[in-house]
Amino acid sequence: MPEFLLIALIGGLITPLMTAPIGAFMLWRRMAYVGDALAHTTLLGLAIGLWLQLPLTLSMMMIALIVAISISLLNQRPHTSSDTLLAIAAHSSLGLGMLAIALLPEARVDLMGYLFGDLLNLTYTDLGILAAVAVTILASIRYFWRPLLLNTLNAELASLAGVNNQRIALLLAVLVAVVVAVSTKLVGALLMTALLITPAATARIFSRSPRSMIMTAMLISQVGIMGGLALSWFFDLPVAPSIVSLLFVGFLLSRITSFK
Amino acid sequence: MQTADYPPLIEARQIEHHFNGQRLFEPLNIRIESGEYISLIGLNGAGKSTLLRLLLKLMPHQCGDIRHRPALRIGYLPQRWHANAQLPISAHEFLMLNLTASQSRQQLDQLMETWQCHTFAQQPIHTLSGGQWQRLLLARALLNQPQLLALDEPTQGLDLQSQHDFYQQLQKLHRQGVTILMISHDLAHAMSYSQRVIALSEGRICCDGAPQTLLNHPEYQRRFVCAHQDAIVPHTHCGHSHNA
Fold first, then answer.
1. Burial degree of A216 (CB within 10 A; 0-12, 13-18, 19+)
2. Domain residues for A184?
């Protein structure tokens, strides 16, 4: 097996370890648009990384974090509408990012790779980053499981149970931003939300507990990524759209079987 | 009941709340004594839920002072909320999640038995009926053996039989020494079960006392009984009969 394919396979097995739990929380909290908006903001991170000659994953993560934390803090103020803020942040970042890249004539940016993913160009460094982030995300979710779930169920009850709701909302925003920034390389900014939400939505149908839903979503994502890679390898198709299409087919099939 | 040695469970002095730049309440003073059964009544938008949340410190108060008795244990039933169907969680797991380190599993099983939650323990919470849901929330609220049970319109959406059962359960808890503070739209219940009724209207407490004294209170008659009658028979003008 070619080395690049092996790296892509390993990356495809690691990534769902973080996208599945975060995707499940996003589904439970109706935050699907947050993932989409944060994925858009990473283009500005990419541009800033190119300008300042920083590692691109780091600069993308920094911008996603700044936007996620700002929105989370602004959300805690009365009279602010989160979807308005997200829409402004997402599209302003996209516009500013494109402008900044256009002003960098010497920079060669694979915009298609950024928008639709570049799984087959993963490096060992990327694998290391993915593994480190996946372990951190899993550990954080395990440690904060109770407050995260209580806050997701009902913030008032969580508050009475001693949960600091503002901190938990902030924590989740940070986790989503980190996952979006490091996973964008796999499926691209435009298809990122599909990798987060579709497996979780499919898993919902087969799950009777939050934990089993996360585990099932992990498995579905891994099968989707492996299947997408296989389609790409054997039929010379683009990887990320193949992955997302397979995940969509899985979702459709699960819905059809649930009607029986 | 209150004794000289114990401070009130909750004491609020001169609390105010502003929303959108408008004052929701005039400065209010409220004392909740141990052993009371209090109904908080008022028309829609009177600010009952806000006042209850302020008293429980679930939201920050902007002016005044709210004091809880040290180590006060509060059980709270929020206004009816719909569990998210996307989050698959069973009734038993929901209660387990609310269990703190100081509470035992045995305690939880006992509560489930007492409030008959074991019959739907493995059912996802979003599929529970109104009565089952309220029993589950009540069991959750009682996990920490509260001294004060605060309820925000707990019988909303329940059929008459379920309402009756629920009030019986509340009475049982009250007899066991739990202080009840409940928002209610059910004036008949408030008058027949409560020891004290606090009526909120236009940003102030217009009546506060035993149900018997309240019945003859002119402001209570004008704001609640007449409003209620007008709602049923729109052309009845209570003010006329009142003046007559």
1. buried
2. 3-190
ipTM: 0.81
pLDDT digits (tens, 9 = 90+) for B6-47: 789 999 999 988 877 788 888 899 999 999 999 999 888 788
AA identity, residue A128: G
Sheet holding B196-201, edge to edge: B74-77, B148-152, B179-183, B37-42, B196-201, B204-209
Amino acid identity of residue B38, one-letter, is I
What six digits make up the tokens of B221? 């008659």
Distance CA A81, CA A204 (A): 28
What is the pTM (predicted TM-score) of this model? Answer: 0.84
Question: Closest chain B residue to A210 measured between Cα atoms?
Answer: B88
Domain count, chain A: 1
**Gap between the Cα atoms of B17 and A147, Å rounded:** 28
The beta-carbon neighbor of B78 closest among A146, A149, A157 is A157
Question: CATH number, domain at A150?
Answer: 1.10.3470.10
Question: What are the pLDDT digits (tens) for B172-216?
Answer: 999 999 999 999 888 888 888 899 999 888 888 888 888 887 777
Q: Is residue A74 part of a domain?
A: yes
Chain B partners within 8 Å of A146 (Cβ): 97
Chain A environment of B62 (Cβ under 8 Å) = none
Hey, CA dihedral for A141, A143, A149, A155, is it positive or negative? negative
